[in-house]
Amino acid sequence: MPELPTAPALFPVTVDVVALTVRNDVLNVLLITRLIDPFRGMLALPGGFVLSGEDLATAASRELAEETGVDRVPGHLEQLASYGPKGRDPRGDVLTVAHLLLAPDFPVLSAGSDAEQAAWYPVTQVLDGGLQLAFDHRRILGDALERAKSKLEYSPLGAAFCGEEFTIAQLRAVYEAVWGTRLDPRNFHRKATGTPGFLEDTGRMTAGDAGRPAALFRLVEAARPVAGQPSRAVLNPPLMRPRD
Amino acid sequence: MPELPTAPALFPVTVDVVALTVRNDVLNVLLITRLIDPFRGMLALPGGFVLSGEDLATAASRELAEETGVDRVPGHLEQLASYGPKGRDPRGDVLTVAHLLLAPDFPVLSAGSDAEQAAWYPVTQVLDGGLQLAFDHRRILGDALERAKSKLEYSPLGAAFCGEEFTIAQLRAVYEAVWGTRLDPRNFHRKATGTPGFLEDTGRMTAGDAGRPAALFRLVEAARPVAGQPSRAVLNPPLMRPRD
DNA sequence: TGATTTATTGTCAATCTGACGATAAATACC
DNA sequence: GGTATTTATCGTCAGATTGACAATAAATCA
Which whole number is the average pLDDT over B61-71? Predict the structure, then answer.
């Protein structure tokens, strides 16, 4: 990074949040309906401008709070990627730093008539179906989905979609929803419980549901991801392990 | 992303490039010596301001070209992460979008006396040893190294450090340098050549080196990463595979 | 009281992995 | 030239992992 040449170009910077959750065994994304131009009336990712003196993670959680009413980050928030600044906003060059939130299903603010209404939408409806998104948000959602899929492969972040305590079946439903596949319950159980440093039996059980009660697990403390930071691989062996 | 409120804050945006290569079996990073304040005389990552009308990837490759003299991107360039804008530049809030370049060893411009001199430095000297970096570049380098390490685990990007054609031993040297470990040559050979869709035998052999000549391989066309885009996992099986 | 549903434990063959022996094919040394 | 050395490559074998699927456990449902 060299000196200020004459005067460097200045850009408005926004954060956008791709909030994903699993509802009714289907992956959902949180979208708001835009009330003003450009793209008025269209669906968009929640987000907004970074304020001066503010950090990216701060801005992302602030915008999430403003547009959904949550009082604190309800899951795992990490940076996804940055887009722009060229040619993604009709008003001019705007850089956006997209973030990814993996969270249990949480209620969104039922805002008044003049606020931007946030709501959950099935991801497939947006990516395959006819739902249009503002700006380049469709591409961002696509990248977010890719990231989420691969995160499940080699990190314990699947648990971020569950609450504090969860059953193996609930965890499996997350994998099935994100990957869009079915998994063998018996093999999944073996792998999930057999992976060292992943799950911890709470000793408690579910009750009241149909079928045999299930044991409740929680994420091992050390496996819990640090907010905003990349999470260490836990589930998968590398290409090859060191000999020493 | 809502409307322009009153007037959104504007930020200078820079790109920084963490260029990694393997020289003499050791992972090296490209650094420049700063000629002006702040941090004059200190080592820093190559980078600079994003110009108006420019995209991030464009800016990154332009800055790399300006500071090293390469005429085109000499390896795999992808976005790493964004940092700031708060509290990382004494002159004020500056957002930087860090990029990661994985490339074969390439010569850097021997600039005149008034240009910023770029040179390769062993990564361990920076992270463990006494070398200080300007701004938050030490943290960025640390993140880049983490990313590079994990990329090798589940993507074919190790080959990005090699030239067009390479031997299995050269590829293994990459893994050993990035991971800082030793790998069993026989098992590595088996895994590398046995992974479908990874390597392709060119039919040609090395000659002149000590020992038995080695077969030359190249990356399978379909496995070649798209510049700037995340690369599909190739080497490792996922946590669990779809049943259907 | 079954019938049904869901959870959990096993079993077994195929594959993969890690440790390491043996052989192949070049250069290096004398 | 002949042998030592170096590096590449192929094989072997036991243990771990995976995928397919049987069997059992423990609840609700009808």
Answer: 91
